[in-house]
Structure formats: structure tokens, C-alpha cells
User: Fold this.
Amino acid sequence: MDPDAAALLIRLKKIMGKVESDCTDENGLLDYVAATKHEKYFVFEEAVCELQKINIESMSSDEKLAFGINLYNLMIK
Assistant:
């Protein structure tokens, strides 16, 4: 996979992980309203725009599949 694509997914995962950990209570429940107001959520929203720069056409079928799965797992949160 394109190193830039992989690095972007890793960076997005770290940002969202920080939002989730800061907005999850002691019972493991995520406060979605608080998450959308978290300062890192706004960073995440801006960083997601960088996905437009990823050239999926240059990836092999396996790379596209891996990228798609990782992106899906990130975005489903």
C-alpha cells in the first residue's frame, strides 16, 4: 500500500483513539455528543479531507482491499 495512505490511516486512527478514550466513561460507554465537541474531533475532521489525495487506482487489488477494510473500520466508529 502507498506509504502515504498507510500513514494517513494510522494518524487518523490515533486521533480518533484519543477522542474515544477521553469521551468513554468508566462503564465503557462512549459519549457521542462529547466526542463531537472534543478538540481532537475537529482535527480528525480536517485530516479526513486528506483521503481525497490518496490514489486508489495505483494500488493492487490486495492493497485496495486492505485500505478499504482499514478505512471502513475507522469510519464505522
Observations:
- The chain has a mean pLDDT of 93.
- The helical segments are 3-22, 32-37, 39-48, 61-75.
